[in-house]
């Protein structure tokens, strides 16, 4: 291994060029080097743009592809610049629009694939990979032509999503498609092996690179730090630093970050502190986004007790809030809501004594994702979050906002639980508060769904009025007798009596 690395030649290159979309001329602003979290930085740095390559087909089709590519790029670019992330809804909308044309271009495919990784912090890792595979297969069916850049983009997504795959099978598929791997391909395959602590596999790929006279960059060394650490050999991980220097490559902040993450996985706080000091001494200043990555690793590995020490090192640099928001989203996705809430409370707006518009809604993203991720078994925790957000002036009306999120996401269980919390706060609950839930069930003619909502009303002691029954209950039943039978089976005696009174009134009127 050391011999292979010492023979490496340093390649001077621009990191943004690694994933650049091939073309001759830029058609839009690059999404390069934005203030994103450490988990998105690598992806966004490489979101460079150029015009469509020449493809077979009519000039009209090519023109439409270019226009649609520009539109999709503008939407994704805007989202990344504003929030440092992309929503699943936006990505699927663009994907479906591209599919409807029936003529996906290579650039469009590349853009969509690159969006399936770290830029989707609100999606679980497995779902991201499944989405990437779905996009890959669907666009291929529609005639998209893939080259090495597409395979490299898929590899990047695999790495960001920690997807377990066979590098040898991946190479075999490339060979079957008559696609030749390049330096970036080998570099990412090494990272994949190292992600699983497979140093032998990484060494094999390094041998390929040497035989092809391909240069070894600092990214490979960074991967090897991770690989040795995950193989249980932290000393070899540390020894990568002198090997790098021997090859004429100075360790970068990312190299130190790889070692920091290794210590974070082990919960070794003393080594974390020492490595941070060494990085500062080597003029490799760690930014907030780097420390956030260490915090994420600590939380994921179950070492939350060390997180306050890392939080104290955050300097609240420019762009801190969007970076921290994305960290919170990733943690919530992993069901680490408590750690995410701890990070949320570090937001600088907390230091403001006034209840500004910004601080009054800063907790929106947190509550929305807690609801969307389905905290069905943690409603009490959600209630605690809401209370603390209001007391901390991070949100003016967290419970009612969470209620609207549950409604938008059709989370009936959470909606009912939030209703109970509101009732406990002496908030009057009216029958029409349940109409939005009933509307979709009526549209779908979903009898069981309507009954579930009525049971939720029953639990809250809210009886349906005449309008609720006529507009949102009766339409899903064939006749009045079916209504009576359904109510008889599912409702309690006292509640049933009040419902029967309404039904009797309707029968009498008609």
Number-wise, the strands total: 0
Percent helix range: 55-70%
The separation of the N and C termini measures 87 Å
Q: How would you characterize the largest beta sheet?
A: none
pLDDT under 50 segments (min length 5)?
A: 1-56, 350-356
Write down the overall mean pLDDT.
82
Taken in chain order, the helices and strands follow as HHHHHHHHHHHHHHHHHHHHHHHHHHHH
The fraction of residues in strands falls at under 5%
Radius of gyration: 27 Å
> Oligomerization state of this entry?
single chain
Secondary structural class: mainly alpha
Q: Which of globular, elongated, flat, extended, rod-shaped describes the shape?
A: globular
Number of helices, counting only DSSP H or I runs of 4 residues or more:
28
Descriptive overview:
Residues 209-317 form the PROP1-like PPR domain. InterPro entries: LRP130, PPR_rpt, PROP1-like_PPR_dom, TPR-like_helical_dom_sf. By secondary structure, the protein is mostly helical. Helix content is 64%, strand content 0%. It has helices spanning 2-6, 38-45, 59-83, 88-101, 106-114, 125-141, 148-160, 167-176, 183-195, 199-211, 218-230, 234-246, 253-266, 269-281, 288-300, 307-311, 320-333, 337-344, 357-360, 364-372, 379-391, 398-408, 412-424, 435-443, 447-459, 466-472, 480-490, 493-509. The longest helix is centred in the first third of the chain and has 25 residues, at 59-83. The protein is globular.
